[in-house]
Amino acid sequence: MKAARAAPLVLAALIAGVSWQAALSQTAAVKRNAEGFPAPDRPVADIVSPIWADEAERDRRLETEQVFGLLDIKAGMTVADIGAGSGYYVVRLSPVVGPKGNVLAEDIMPDYLRDLQKRVTDLKLTNVTVVQGTTADPKLPAASVDVAFLIHMYHEIEQPYGLAYNLAKSMKPGGKVAIEDRDARPPNHGTPPDLLKCEMEAVGYRQTGFKTLDGDLGYLAIFTAPAANRLPRPADIVPCKMK
Length: 243
Fold this sequence. Notes:
Blueprint: H1 3-16, H2 20-29, H3 55-60, H4 63-71, E1 78-82, H5 88-97, E2 102-107, H6 110-122, E3 128-132, E4 145-151, H7 160-170, E5 171-181, H8 193-202, E6 206-212, E7 219-224
Parallel strand pairs: 1-2, 1-4, 2-3, 4-5
Antiparallel strand pairs: 5-7, 6-7
Helix pairs in contact: 1-2
């Protein structure tokens, strides 16, 4: 580091009563994006498919019946499927929330979104809106969502802290975020429950439920989103380390 660039850091260290070397070490320890969100201190799985498993097999295992029951999904709700992929949850949420409800089907992959829009159009699902988000922001309307689903994709989120932060702004007061995943390390397309809890709590979420689903479907973790005015500053978020 050049002296000119290091000088402000040295001054800050002296004011804080810590050494220059310690200040440099603390600054370099956490990589952050342009908005200040830390990178996850763990591997991130590659996005490999728009569908987690065969839809008919998931239906035989009563996946959505279990999940919707645990979350008390009702007519008139606005729900969001983050990382909607091929739309397995989207097409099953649509009739449950009904004509007075809304389904926001979000993904970051343009080809997935193109195919999903065609499926929504072909099925005439008039209460579904397809949304293109980013790795750090689902781009949903503010304070609009009752329940958000992240289904077998949390381990693929490149910027989980930014996504959770921006998703919280889209949740209604008391809104729930439901994350379905397997208890496995991210390279094996899962997320250990303790790691998931730590990362969500780092952004201000509170875990309110946890259930191992029947049929070898993994687990469902339920969180309550923090109010937008209670979110931490991105620069204050400390990434969790995978054990």
